Amino acid sequence: xxxxxxxxxxxxxxxxxxxxxxxxxxxxxxxxxxxxxxxxxxxxxxxxxxxxxxxxxxxxxxxxxxxxxxxxxxxxxxxxxxxxxxxxxxxxxxxxxxxxxxxxxxxxxxxxxxxxxxxxxxxxx
Length: 125
Description:
A 6-stranded antiparallel β-sheet has the order 3-2-1-4-6-5. The longest helix is centred in the first third of the chain and has 34 residues, at 2-35. The chain has 3 helices and 6 strands; from the N terminus they run αββββααββ. The chain is globular, with a radius of gyration of 16 Å. By secondary structure, the chain is of the alpha+beta class. It has one domain. Helix content is 38%, strand content 22%.
């Protein structure tokens, strides 16, 4: 019986680490968005919450929400994003490669970003 408890503890610890990594990655993305004035009309979905940045850049936290409720290519197991405006232009390389390369070179803790449609994308391990 103690072996079952130990296995369950390991699974729970792995889950906690994964949740913490998603939050760290989301904070890195947020820092990038703010640094480059791209924090408007963006949503970052993770851990059943959403950081919603309106057209003025104001951040609202929405709870009990999943990206998959809003777009087909969302990955609820990691991080998903939807975007318009500057971030859309950046990730679709409409304004060159400089900011796209900077975003791509962020530390995503072993995740990589993949576009779904032109206005959304998700991270995968």
